[in-house]
Amino acid sequence: MLAKIRWTNSVPVVAVAALILTWGRDLPPPLVVIVALLLGGAVLAAVHHAEVVAHKVGEPFGSLVLAVAVTIIEVALIVTLMISGGEKTQSLARDTVFAAVMITCNGLLGLSLLVGAARRHVAVFNSEGTGGAFATVIMIATLSLVLPSFTTSRPGPQFSPAQLGFAAVTSLALYALFVTVQTRRHRDYFLPITTAGEVIDTEEHLDPPTGKAALTSLGLLLVALIGVVGLAKGVSPAIEKVVGDLGMPQAVVGVAIALLVLLPETIAAVRAAVRDRVQTSLNLAVGSAMASIGLTIPAIAIAMIWLPGPLLLGLGGTQMVLLALTAAVGTLTIVPGRANVLQGGVHLSLLAVFLFLAASP
């Protein structure tokens, strides 16, 4: 156990040190491999420290810790790449946010249900909390990613400044309302439940960490996430080069960013499902989707004050169909409050369709 703690404490520091040494440099292939390995180590360390903090504060607050932290990193990465990428990154925010929605609402949700149902035959969760959160995700996604394709104030799939401001304020207000409901007014809707429907308000097998340990993990979580976004920026030119060499569309870069920044939450969601805490897994999945839109869109709207060029937010026809299908299938999955491996498989199939069409539109 001591070796594990030393490993998770040292890797974030090493990752940040590597970030300082490689910042702004063109990396040769051997260094790209080394940086990628450090990136993976920083991701795993972030998961460990996020779980320590989550265990200390309890649910549903714990699920918010990683969701908000990773979203901040996502925004920083998008803005950084948009500043340096020129015209080809005008749709990067849209591609990344849409990819995050598809990955969380189909990948994380489907994987959580699949693991939970494989363990107990039926995965049980609170449909009142998860259903309300999922409805909010679809509302913000439609407002931010679908409507820009139909408004007429500006040419192309973009909002006017007033429309972008309205969408940003609305998204932020809905996210704040969701957090209030999740953490205060209806906290019990987001707590894990047993197969019999009884709320589990405490962890049964593990003693909570001390306050000092939780604060240390919180600090190392932030260090690890800084290392993740910085090293990801370092390897992003290699990703873009591979995408270009393979003749894939630029949207694949957004998918790669979303997959990378959501890896910690994916691991945490699977671990929770293995422990028969499916509700915690769904809190991470749907909460991450909401944070990704509800916080990213307002942040990008503010960043557009100094970012050059237009911000293309509107989805194309294929993406709209996938979003509508996700909304319909997700509703049918969540409303009963119980799911088996079939529902998990359907959502994972939807994710596979999205990934395939992103690479081969």
Q: Which key features would you list for this structure?
A:
361 residues; mainly alpha; 13 helices; 75% helix; 1% strand; globular
Task: Tell me briefly what this model is.
The chain is mainly alpha-helical and 361 residues long. Helix content is 75%, strand content 1%.
The proportion of strand residues reads under 5%
Q: Which residues form runs of ≥5 with pLDDT under 50?
A: none
Question: What is the mean pLDDT?
Answer: 82
Q: Structural class of the secondary elements?
A: mainly alpha
Question: How many strands?
Answer: 2
Shape: globular
SSE order, one letter for each helix or strand: HHHHEHHHHHHHHEH
By DSSP (H or I, 4+ residues per run), the number of helices equals 13
> C-alpha Rg, in Å?
20 Å
* Biggest sheet overview: 2 strands, antiparallel
Task: Estimate percent helicity.
Answer: over 70%
Largest beta sheet: what is the strand line-up? Answer: 1-2
Distance between the termini: 47 Å
